[in-house]
Amino acid sequence: MRLGVLDVGSNTVHLLVVDAHPGARPLPAHSHKADLRLAQLLDDSGAIGDEGIDKLIAVVRDALQAAEDKGVENLLPFATSAVREATNADDVLARVADETGVRLQVLTGAEEARLTFLAARRWYGWSAGRLLVLDIGGGSLEIAYGMDEEPDAAVSLPLGAGRLTAGWLPGDPPAPDDVRSLRRHVRTEIARTVGEFSRLGAPDHVVATSKTFKQLARIAGAARSAEGLYVQRELKRESLEAWVPRLAGMTTEQRAELPGVSEGRAGQLLAGALVAEGAMDLFGVEKLEICPWALREGVILRRLDHMDSD
């Protein structure tokens, strides 16, 4: 069966097409992505304005056409923090449904964390033991921990790289005082959750997903994405700590010249690095492994599980 998962995120709208059936790993067949920056289209009241909704509808239509072109039989559309937190979310969802026929499922932050955890667990298997999974998106940071396929603890914090950049780092490069203020804010927010996870015991394996972690690992020396999914990629806290002040002193244009850093994500990389550094420090993580699978794969795997049980 050819499945498509349509991910309406804070930064991008991403259609991932896979060939999949219960009991087998999903095989990527096509990827269609648009940099919508939906979180930046919120007005002062926290609503997505008409212009933003129009852009979203246009992008969803393009994704639908791509899905049709690639022979997708079943489309799994969902939205994350940008739509979830918009004050007019119901109106946005209604207009998208009316004008495209796509009914977006809005995931809660905890659902994002659980589905991402499922993807990581399936990728690494039971031998990974107790798994701690970190994911930095455009609007939120997800943290999940557990021994099984359902995590024992899963939280979502408003510490996405795009959100923090827009709210805390107006300069290019940012002012040192702004960087310090953001660093304090990030660590205060993460520290509130550490106790909940610490009571469950130390993890056996720590992994991270998301474009932010992949780019941080790449500038710290990890293998290029062109070398394939099965090449192990790690990010050491020591390397990240050395990179944070360097990123803070760079302009967006300079960051975009770093290996593996896209122009569209370069402006958010410092905020993402501060979140990654804070999480690794407060959770006592010296190094973590980059997981190729994340939320989209988790949505697909959950759908396949339901098909298998029907």
TrEMBL record:
Residues 26-305 form the Ppx/GppA phosphatase N-terminal domain. Gene3D superfamilies: 3.30.420.40, Exopolyphosphatase. Domain 2. Pfam families: Ppx-GppA. It comes from the Bacteria. InterPro entries: ATPase_NBD, GppA/Ppx_hydrolase, Ppx_GppA_N. Belongs to the GppA/Ppx family. This is Ppx/GppA phosphatase family protein.
